[in-house]
Design goal:
This protein is mainly β and 190 residues long. It has one domain: Galactose-binding domain-like (Jelly Rolls, Sandwich). The protein has 1 helix and 11 strands, in the order αβββββββββββ. The strands form 2 sheets. Strands 1, 3, 4, 6, 9 and 11 form a 6-stranded antiparallel beta sheet that branches. It has a 5-stranded antiparallel beta sheet with strand order 2-5-10-7-8, with no helix packed on it. It is globular and about 85 Å long. It starts with a helix and ends in a 27-residue tail after the last strand. Calcium ion binds next to strand 4 and strand 11.
Length: 190
């Protein structure tokens, strides 16, 4: 009987410790917003709505795109900017939910404030996905300007995801938790 109680006690302590460990709050922060929720946007980058007959889910039914065209050398491809208010400072890993048309339209660059543009690219075409990203930016608490910069035509961006969780890899459509323009409908473009 005594042994029984002891073992039960040990089991209970173990379970309690496990619960505390599992219940421990995750200290990482994430900011997810719609790519179409821009502060400003420059042509030929533009906001587009999902057309009827699209089978793949697009968050907010809208995205930012640079339609495919034969670009001249050094022709600017536009950019979108987003005013962000960061509450938790730290190193953020940057992801974009992208759709690439083919190997000549499979990249976009991101930058924060006056920082250098960093390219996100991969070789998955004709479907929405989160290209593996190694882009990281150090952000202090307060206001920052996030830039999405055109590098090639033939691309679409649905969502932008910044997280301090180094190991996190977004999949599918994420739930946005940040509005760049809280007074506007996210799908209302400028
Ligand atoms: Ca979207």
């Amino acid at each position: 009987m005594k042994w029984h109680r002891l073992i039960s006690g040990i089991t209970a302590s173990f379970l309690l410790a496990l619960m505390v460990k599992l219940g421990k709050p995750n200290n990482s922060t994430y900011i997810c917003f719609e790519a179409e929720d821009v502060t400003t946007i420059e042509q030929p980058m533009r906001i587009a709505k999902v057309e009827k007959g699209e089978t793949e889910k697009v968050s907010g039914n809208a995205f930012v795109e640079i339609p495919w065209f034969k670009k001249e050398k050094d022709q600017p491809l536009g950019k979108a900017t987003y005013k962000l208010n960061i509450s938790e400072g730290g190193v953020y890993y940057v992801w974009v939910r992208a759709y690439w048309i083919h190997g000549c339209g499979n990249s976009v660059a991101v930058a924060v404030d006056d920082g250098r543009p960093m390219v996100i690219t991969d070789n998955t075409y004709n479907r929405w996905h989160w290209p593996r990203s190694t882009v990281q930016v150090k952000l202090s608490p307060g206001e920052h300007t996030f830039h999405l910069i055109g590098t090639e035509p033939g691309i679409k961006i649905d969502q932008i995801y910044l997280t301090t969780d180094r190991g996190y890899v977004p999949t599918g459509v994420r739930t946005p938790n940040y509005k760049v323009n809280p007074k506007q409908e996210a799908s209302q473009g400028k």
